[in-house]
Amino acid sequence: MIDVIEDSSINAFLFLMPIKLGTPPVMNLVAIDTGSTLSWVQCQPCEPHCHDQAAEAGQIFDPTKSTTFRHARCISRECFSIKHELIRLQSANCMEEEDTCLYTMSFGGDTTGKVDIGFSFLFGCSLDVEYSDKEAGAIGFGSSSFSFFEQVAKLINYKAFTYCLPSDETVKKGI
């Protein structure tokens, strides 16, 4: 069971879920989005712009402080997958001078960043976020080979997931 949090001071419309990224692990509170396919968090250095992230949503992730983080290379399987499954993504390109896969997507605003891999889990490391809510990012429950469920299924060799989000505001746990 995964904790589901409802906090209208961070986001009044979406449920939130705590995740941990990197080694050592950094907690981030992200929005659960059943339509997004790419999970992402705001990353340092936010260039040119970071959105206002609530203190309760965790620290802005700094990939340089993680021993299990790496950028997806331009010719990697992960970058190829992102480029060919542009579901809810506006574009996927390559930063050739750094050999890094890039993405741009809409999520209540626009976010642009690098495609990253940590513990074999593909996620977006957003460097430019124009967004009004205060969570750290989003967890993509949509359908693609890089959605949260598809990636977890490969790691645990299981093919079925069920989730139930509470409708009663007093309920704090679900999934």
Automatic annotation (TrEMBL):
One of its GO terms (biological process) is proteolysis. The keyword Protease applies. The keyword Glycosyltransferase does not apply. GO terms for molecular function: peptidase activity. Residues 15-175 form the Peptidase A1 domain. InterPro entries: PEPTIDASE_A1 (IPR033121), Peptidase_aspartic_dom_sf (IPR021109), Plant_Aspart_Prot_A1 (IPR051708), TAXi_N (IPR032861). This is Peptidase A1 domain-containing protein. Belongs to the peptidase A1 family. It comes from Panicum miliaceum. Keywords: Hydrolase, Protease.
